[in-house]
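can u do me a favor
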């Protein structure tokens, strides 16, 4: 796996949130290493994270693989890993989005600015 990391961090992340973000990112990396290139080619992965002082953040993981199988819906398909990622995103009050085609998968974990209490 060839990993590129791009960080635009301008704020702090609560340690509990960081753990959840790390687990989602680890699952995305695991999926890329297992499924991106069935032929065994080295997968290129880009990880980008951005935090803001207002508490919002985005983490993106993009691979250059073959994309999801036909009729695969990342919101309802998949196994335990996808269920875990969605549960962790919900626990962060974040959204987990996927774009995919034959040139790879682009996953985004997006947490908007927390509501004022």
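np, heres the sequence
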């Amino acid at each position: 796996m060839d990993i590129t990391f791009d960080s635009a961090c301008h704020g702090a992340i609560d340690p509990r949130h960081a753990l959840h973000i790390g687990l989602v990112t680890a699952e995305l990396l695991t999926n890329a290493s297992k499924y991106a290139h069935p032929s065994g080619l080295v997968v290129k992965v880009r990880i980008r994270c951005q935090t803001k002082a207002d508490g919002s953040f985005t983490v993106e993981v993009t691979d250059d693989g073959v994309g999801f199988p036909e009729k695969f819906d990342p919101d309802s398909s998949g196994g335990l890993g996808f269920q875990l990622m969605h549960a962790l995103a919900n626990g962060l009050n974040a959204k987990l989005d996927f774009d995919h085609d034959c040139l790879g998968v682009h996953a985004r974990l997006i947490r908007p600015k927390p509501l004022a209490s």
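The radius of gyration is 14 Å. hope that helps!!
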